[in-house]
Design brief:
Elements lengths: L1 E5 L10 H15 L3 E7 L8 E4 L2 E7 L9 H12 L3 E5 L3 H14 L3 E4 L12 H8 L3 E4 L2 H9 L7 E3 L6 H6 L8 E4 L8 H10 L7 E4 L5 H10 L6 E5 L3 H10 L2 E4 L3 E2 L3 H8 L3 E5 L3 E2 L1 H5 L5 E4 L2 H12 L15 H21 L1 H22 L1
Parallel strand pairs: 1-2, 1-5, 2-4, 5-6, 6-7, 7-8, 9-10, 9-12, 10-11, 12-14, 13-15, 14-16
Antiparallel strand pairs: 3-4
């Protein structure tokens, strides 16, 4: 099966949760013998229109870096025609790109699946183009129930949205050797939504107990958190490891006792999933824009907290649990199982496209109008 992914930005431009998901999904499909093509802004050198990396073909839609040109949506239908896909999978990051992909979908008779990784901002959710982006695809995929709910709030029908989580490599987890870096691990980009301060304050309340913690990840707020650690006088117990490859993170998770997740916003907490599969006891602080609680609701070795005191108490209880270096409860998130879900979703999208033929034509007409409107705006 030839799957054409649509995303102006890809991981080779900059890594985000959405761009990592595109890259990992495309490469996993290639490993299973499928033909993924990623239609994106050009990121490689040279004047050739395509570039192959890790068995994935990348096709340049525009030469400009992401966000620096308004022509991506205008050029997308031609790029998709050249890719000749069986299925089109567009990211939901930019509404106009979804509408342009819908136009190509109608012309090429290939179903449109939108992988909606992040929620639109509060100022965008009422815009008509976002509602069209949520309702025109043949099927919408979301990484969590939290994002699924946001897509449905934009008008998508309940039976047209499927949850497809991020996957993990359970074989790599099985083979990873534990490294005793710290008792408690936090792993995430240190940005405005990291909310590491919740964990640091809870750990400071436990300074009379024996513990050590490591923070894995980097970002614009790292210096703020390093200063907070000093202000709380726990700098001798908290270390900052910066960015680390997956294999190092797995080793740290296997050697740790507790993994803490306190971020305010998380479409899907892949490192929390990895840590739980590595046997860590999990402590999750609930936030309305984070899906982390979904992973621990049915897990005996994890806690969901809603207050500072609950977080502190959960850290104590989790630390008293028996240590493990593998938790078999998360086998359903293995790459093989999740990619099979993607393939089933593609088949379902093809069936839906065929079954709702009249509705599809109406949706295609709306998409044509939207793309014409984009032309007017740009020119």
């Amino acid at each position: 099966m030839r799957v054409a992914f649509v995303s102006e930005a890809v991981a080779q431009h900059h890594e985000t949760g959405a761009t990592r998901r595109i890259r990992r999904t495309a490469e996993a499909l290639a490993r299973r013998g499928h033909d993924p093509v990623v239609c994106c802004a050009k990121w490689w050198d040279g004047d050739h229109a395509t570039f192959e990396q890790d068995d994935v073909v990348y096709r340049a839609v525009t030469d400009e870096p992401p966000g620096e040109s308004r022509r991506f949506a205008l050029s997308l239908p031609a790029a998709l025609r050249a890719a000749d896909p069986d299925v089109i999978q567009a990211t939901g990051a930019v509404a106009s790109h979804v509408l342009a992909a819908k136009l190509a979908s109608v012309v090429l008779r290939a179903p449109l699946v939108v992988d909606w990784y992040d929620s639109p901002g509060p100022n965008d959710s009422n815009e008509p183009q976002w509602r069209l982006a949520a309702t025109l695809p043949d099927l919408v995929l979301a990484p969590s129930e939290t994002i699924r709910t946001r897509v449905r709030e934009l008008g998508a029908e309940a039976d047209a949205v499927r949850v497809v989580p991020n996957f993990i490599d359970t074989d790599a987890i099985q083979e990873a050797e534990p490294r005793e870096v710290a008792d408690v691990v936090y792993s995430r980009r240190l940005d405005d939504d990291a909310n590491l301060e919740s964990l640091l304050l809870a750990l400071a309340e436990l300074r009379d107990r024996e513990w050590s913690a490591v923070v894995i990840g980097d970002g614009p707020e790292r210096h703020t958190y390093e200063r907070q650690v000093k202000d709380l006088r726990i700098e001798d117990r908290v270390s900052f490891a910066g960015e680390q490859p997956v294999e190092n993170r797995l080793a740290a998770f296997k050697g740790a006792h507790v993994y803490a997740q306190t971020a305010r916003k998380e479409s899907f907490p892949t490192d929390l999933l990895r840590a739980l599969a590595c046997g860590c006891a999990g402590v999750v602080e609930y936030h309305v824009d984070s899906s982390a609680h979904e992973l621990v609701e049915q897990e005996d070795r994890a806690f969901r907290t809603t207050s500072e005191q609950e977080l502190t108490d959960a850290l104590v209880t989790a630390a008293e649990m028996e240590r493990m270096d593998r938790n078999e409860n998360f086998g359903e998130y293995d790459e093989r199982a999740v990619i099979e879900t993607y393939l089933n979703s593609y088949d379902e999208a093809r069936e839906r496209m065929s079954w709702v033929e009249p509705a599809m034509l109406v949706g295609g007409a709306i998409a044509v109008v939207a793309v014409v409107a984009l032309l007017v705006v740009v020119l």
